[in-house]
Amino acid sequence: MKEVQDHYFKKAKTEGYVARSAYKLEEIDQKHGLLRNGLSVLDLGCFPGSWMQYAQKRVGQKGFVFGVDLQDLQLPLSPNMGFIQEDVFNLNETHFAPFIPPFDLVLSDMAPKTTGHQQIDGARVLGLGQMVLFLAQRWLKPSGNCLIKAFHGPAFEPLLNQMKGEYKKVKPFKPKSSRKESKEVFLLGMGRIWVPKETNE
Ligand SMILES: C[S@@+](CC[C@H](N)C(=O)[O-])C[C@H]1O[C@@H](n2cnc3c(N)ncnc32)[C@H](O)[C@@H]1O
Fold it and tell me: Where is S-adenosyl-L-methionine annotated to bind (predicted)?
């Protein structure tokens, strides 16, 4: 397994990605055709920026990629990329200027700080996942797609079930480049359904 990790680490260095995570997004993209020329992408928890690098290549000059993270991004940004250092719980539309929501695709590779206490960590994972779903209801185009990093554990089923109510199809995906021992699994919601609730106003 270590060899596989080294393989992706070396590949990222050779191909100029700031992290090996780029290959997780690449695998999901190759399987489900997430990205294409001209799309607008919101990348939540984007630091150090390998998903932004990959997405920017795929959407080309006609698309754009906007990243958000608690940590400041060191990545050089081209004119069709934007970034705000912010907690996703504090986001509002003014942060995206000059880009204008809604987006075609919302990505989240975020994980909360863990405590080692299963119930507390589960609640944090669920809270973060639900925040992504809430933001997607506000800023993702109808029929747009949403990819969320989730974890096997107490938060998994509730998040999956909520997503099933908000997307036409929901598919779990464990990329080969994800560490086998890691509990991470990505949930891909395809085709956002408009959910009528006050949060949509
Ligand atoms: C695994 S990293 C993302 C890697 C990134 N996809 C890449 O390819 O370079 C997860 C990021 O989520 C960010 N994060 C976690 N909670 C956050 C929050 N509430 N608001 C914004 N960013 C958050 C962390 O700061 C961390 O940089």
Answer: 49, 51, 69, 87, 109
What kind of fold does domain 22-194 have according to CATH?
A: Rossmann fold (3.40.50)
Q: Which residue has the tokens 């096997």?
A: 152
43 assigned ligand-binding residue: no
For residue 56, what are the CA distances in angstroms to 41, 115, 156, 197?
Answer: 9, 34, 30, 33
**Mind listing the pLDDT tens digit for each residue in 56-69?**
999 999 999 999 99
Q: How many Å apart are CA 17 and CA 58, to the nearest integer?
A: 14
Mean predicted confidence (pLDDT) in 122-131? 96
User: Does residue 47 have its Cβ closer than 6 Å to ligand 1?
Assistant: yes
What is this structure's pTM? 0.94
Q: What single string gives the DSSP state of each residue in 97-128?
A: TTS-SPEEEEEE---PPP-S-HHHHHHHHHHH
Tell me the C-alpha distance between 172 and 184, whole Å: 10
Known active-site residue 24: no
